[in-house]
Here is the input.
Amino acid sequence: MGFRSKNHRLPIVAGGVILLIFIPCWLLFFRQRPVDFNTQVKPILNKKCIVCHGGVKRLGDFSLLFRTDALSRVKSGKMAIIPGDPDHSELMRRITMSDPEDRMPYKQAPLSKEEVGVLRDWIRQGAKWGDHWAYVPVKEVQVPATGGNWAVNDIDKFIADKLDPVGLKPSAEASKATLLRRVSLDLTGLPPLAALSDAFLGDKSAGAYGRLVDGLLASPHYGERWAALWLDLARYADTKGYERDDSRNIWRYRDWLIDAFNSDKPYDRQLTEQLAGDLLPHPTDAQLIATAFQRNTMTNDEGGTDNEEFRTSAILDRVNTTWQALMGTTFSCVQCHSHPYDPFRHDEYYQFMAFFNDTRDEDTYADYPLLRQLSVKDSLNVVSLSDWVRKVGAPGQAGEVDWFLRTWQPSINGLRADGFVNASLNDTKWLIFRNHGVARLGSVSLEGSDELIYRYQGYVKGGRLAIHLDRPDGPVLGAFGHGTTPKGWEIAVLDYPAQRGKHDLYLTYENPNLKGPDASGLQFDWFHFTRRLPGAGQPAYAEMKKLYDTLMRVEAPATPIMMDNPAGMHRPTQVFEKGNWLVKGKVVEPATPRSLNPFPVSAPRNRLGLAMWITSRQNPLTARTMVNRLWEQLFGTGLVETLEDLGTQGAEPTHRELLDHLSWKFMTEYGWSVKRLLKEMVMSATYRQDSKVTPGMLDKDPANRYYARAPRVRLSAEQVRDQALAVAGVLSPRIGGPSVMPWQPKGIWLSPWNGQDWSKSNGDDQYRRALYTYWKRTAPYPSMISFDAQAREVCTARRIRTNTPLQALTLLNDSVYLDASRHLAYEMEKEGGAPGRTEGVAGVGRAGTEVQAAIRKGYSAVLYHDIGDGSLAALQHLYDVSLNRFRQNAKKTSEIVGMDETHNNPGTAAMIVVANAILNLDEVITRN
Here is the structure.
């Protein structure tokens, strides 16, 4: 019995053992892999669903933008997604229905079996949401142990880690001549200077390249090159835009940028000063000028426009620019609705806008507020006066005096007036009165004030203006008579008894000398309600009062800056219903999107606090955006190709771990140093590769996304021009200063309202670097536009490179390039012999030898390596054909030489044609 019992147990025990072995193996083999929301689910939702169920549309009260929305009940009362239960989730039922009227996506192709399977598995696994990689704070990344002897630094290890799996190998290092030109153009935007070139090419030691890089980073032209990049982001222009597009004096901001890059001002500090330099303690002039970054917005000077509309437009532009330029994210669509694809809600746009909405600028003609560029003497006098005010017992007022003398702020602009009777806004910009005129300045804070400083123009003498409290016939705060102001705008002062609180001020004007109902007698620019200079009775009071009156009236150039309203002029921010600025909704306070890093606890809720939030190491976008932008400048394409959009609809990063590694180092190890980051990139073996392409590379990686070779990139518009001037020996080395007007054809500018025209600069100014060229938004410099420069009406995060016949025609025919060709030809002839002695037949006797020597000289001067036999023969042939034609046509000779008697001969004319052809070579306008 017992024996039989044992025998019966044997199969059971054996089967149990088999099951114990098989079941774990079965589970291990068939276990469902977790579905990744970001890489598997989100692409399906964005492509097939979110157009109708996202931030713009919420058909059926169903949205897939946020998890809380997706897991809510829909209009029918059903649950679209029940985590863990796909069979009872309405979403699964609707995407698998056979009836096209009910199946989702509506009236579109059904989801594939694979897509349905992904969504089913995702819901079964709990419908877990995920954060897009670019919205997760940057963390330290482990560096791959790859790259072997090829790798010079960490960059190469990340690159090698992706090369091996696709069967690619890195290219050999480029020649010294190629590296010399490449890194010089990349870091300074210019070909290398002769001294630097000779030193590098003659240095055979191992550290020669590193010393070359250090020399280029130390060059004062480095700052010019990187400032040129930033001008597109800052939508910098020398004009205000819109219909009149009048001049704007803002070039000092460009100089600030050059200095910031040259001094390697930490990037976080750069951003802080550009966003909120005016809010720093005791801001310097340079820190105030930095805020012009957000004063490059357009101003509409056209008569009849609504100033509040265009003030609002400028604020919206600042919001969009901050996201596009500094955080590489599209945010503008959130003005009208929640973001269609990214986790930003409609209200959050206006909470962010509130950081910018309380600034003093109001679409004024003068671009107030301005930093007045006082002379050194006047600036020192302002400091002395402020110190005196502090010493006589008014330390708080000392700051007010200093600020007003530097900025004329805070003032109430005349365009804020309303309630007009026989008064109006002249050209919608200035308050102007006719006889028996009345106008109102609403809700003016007079707390503690006893003095009015105002800027005005008097047209007809004999007038009297009175200021009434609270109603047109109310108590008179003060009154004054006026004469005419033949010199234009003048500043005057009116004292009155000390006041308290806020009041509506009614301005009434009488002038019996005005003839006719439409005659105007008095116009106001701004009003500054303040306190009288303290210290009356002090020994130096009369002297200081005279100095104060003099300094406030000093005529000085000025730069638009940012400045917040004082408490008494606070402007609340409201949500625009459906993005319409005329339909105001609820009031909101300054805040940042909840989906990103939290706002710093100790930060003020103003632009300075915003700068702290943007430059926080927890901000996931700031460092990534800058690293990606610098990479694109050096390698032609960003690690994320869409520089303007790191969001879910942007391109996938080719090397996400490398991007995060460099971003982490940028913030931590490098202390936000742009120079250190650039040096890391250009020192890498990846950067130093040859750009030659093999058939195998083209098959496996036609777009060079794996960086098995160096890219070939067309030079920027600025670099094409600067290189031509540099190799011709005429480029002006002067750095900074006002914009210039080099040659351009007549008729480009059309400014009938004021008769402005392009006035060509002379001397060295016509040979300044391209970033100094006067930039008019409605008529940007034509030859640079041909090479993809931007009009800069809005922020441009990425220039899309084009290749058109117009570019070749520009290089061949534009007078700037023809002039550069002349000077290059003169230098070439010096190598071949005395001017004009190259005239002859190529390859025959002395003249032919001189022609060859001249061509070799010109070619190597531009490209830093010897010309090949085939290219030499082609250029010799071009010279011979041109020479024969010029011998037969003295007029054409004079035209191409420019009527210069010294060089007016067929031989020089033919050499100019050759020089022009060299400057037009694809190899010359390409950085390889």
User: Anything to note?
Assistant: Residues 811-927 form one domain. The mean pLDDT is 92.
